Every structure is written in structure tokens, then in C-alpha cells.
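Xanthine dehydrogenase accessory protein XdhC: structure, please.
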Amino acid sequence: MDKELYKIIDESKKKGLRTFVFTSLGDKDFGSKAVVREGELIWISPDTSFFKDNFDKIKDMTKPGITEIAGNRVYVEHICNVSKIVICGAGHTSIAMIKIGQMLGFEMIVVEDREEFADKARDAGADRVYCEDFSPALKKFKSDYDTYFVVVTRGHQWDKECIREILKKPYAYVGLMGAKRRVGFVLDAMRSEGYDEKKIEEIYTPIGLDIKSETPTEIAISIFAEIISVKNAKTKNVGYVEGMLEKIAESNERMVMATIVDKKGSAPRGVGAKALFLRDGSFIGTVGGGKAEHDIMVKVDEILKSDENIKPYLLHVNLTDSEASLEGMVCGGRIEVLIEPV
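Here you go.
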């Protein structure tokens, strides 16, 4: 696989651009790829004409997984960023959210206009803290479709500042805390300023799932429950874990990428899960462990030891109950794994 492709993927992730990678798994140009970013074809394998000929069919596709294009089987991968949570306000609930967010793997960002409260957010472990007025801070902040905004300021005038700027940006979620009357002031102000009614109606308020929360920590848990529900409902299948793209960029050694492109029944990992295998026997990421990883590693070892120019290969791994039980697994199912030399 061309390393230039990984540079493009890395750039797309860093910039938060909507990017889809298409891989042919059928008879037409098997293993060839195309990258569509923000609706434009920006990269294509040099040995293919299939995606160029069918660009009109792929340019608006947003659903990841296996599909059929012009009678040819194609794997669609949606490249996403690390999920970020931007908390506007650094009160007790925010501090609890920072600590929980760290455990869940979110990048935690806080905007707070009071220095003493901003310091508390830093002490709690926020990845980034912007200590300035809400409106200018949010104007400068670059969000993407994997950014989750949580507005928990100390009053509706600051809520309005935040919502006013957030609704101009890309985002995955906007949650607004406050009593019904306070929230009503904010939403009515946005309507009077001409903001899209659909966007206003999409604001999650009252914020968080109703779990009868009482303490700041319980409120934080309810907010995260709602955010996780929204996040996991998104149609994405990104599998580039931390360190994977960096390793590809810095190394000239032969490596092999394994990606789960389809599954039937139950399996340890979902479609899009990846593992990058290195020549020294180490790997970054996982495609599930157990029998799945063992079968993949047998094929990978064969590729890494060969000096030949080996083409992409589609491996079928059977995890049916009878076979899985022999391996100490109880999941069952079948997965298809695309194995590609890097």
C-alpha cells in the first residue's frame, strides 16, 4: 500500500475533514483504493481506473462497510478524528467531566473566562484550557464532526455567547445545561438572531440522560452517557489507533496492515478494526486476539519474510462455535480481513 495514502489519511484526521477511503474487493482492480475528501476525489491508486470511472457513484457515499458499486464489491472506510469534548465553563460538573473523560479516552478541552476556575480545570487534568472570554475563544477554536460541545456556564448570558459561536461550527453534539426558563431565554435569543431552527432543535437540553442525578459527578456521568450514545450511533469505522500512522511515516521497513472489512455473527472486534504488524513480531492495534489474530499472524509472517512484491489478500477467518470453543472462545461468527503490505 502506498505510504502517500497514509499521509493523506493523517492530514485528514488532523484537520478534521470528512474523508472516505474506498477499497476494491471484487474482480475489478482488487486492492486498489480511492480517497474522497469533502466530496472531492483527492487520491487514487495508480493502477486503477475503476474508481475514476465510478466517481459519480462514490462521491456522496457516507455509510461505511461493504457495498456494491457497478457490480464490484467495495469496502468503504470513514476516517474520523479522536473525539474531543469542549466544556464551556469550569464549575464542579466540569471538573468531574474532565476526570471521567480521561478514563474514556476523550480529548478534554475547557473554555473558562475566570483564571481561578481555569486553574482548577488544569489541575483536574484537562488537555487544553483556554482562559479568555467565551466568544473570542470559541471563534478561534477549530472544531470538526467529532467534537462534542458541553455548555455549563454560570448564567444564560454566557450560554448565549457560547451557543451563538458553536452553531456556526461543525460538531457532533451540543448539550446545554440549565433550568427550563434559563434555557428558553437562550434558545429564543438564537431564533431571534436567525439561526436555523433545525440546529436549535438538535441541542440536547436538558443535558444528559435522565438517571435522577443529584451530585456533580452523577450529572457528569449522565452527560457522558448521552454523549457516548450519540458517538456510538454514528456510522464510522475508523481503526487507526494512536501511534499507527506515525510508525508508518517514520519507518521504511516492510509492514503489514490487517483490517476487518466484514463480519457475520459475533466477533471480538468490529468492522474497521486494524492492526499494523512489524517485522520484529510486534504490532500496533488489534483485530481481536485469539484465533482471529493467530490466523492473521500466520499469513502476515509469510508476507514479512518474503522479498517478493505481494499483493493485497483477503483472509477468511472462521470463528464458528465448534472452532471457537477449541480456541477457548465463545463468540462464534466469521470475519473477513484485508491484509495489505505497507
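Notes: Residues 302 and 310 are 10 Å apart (CA to CA).
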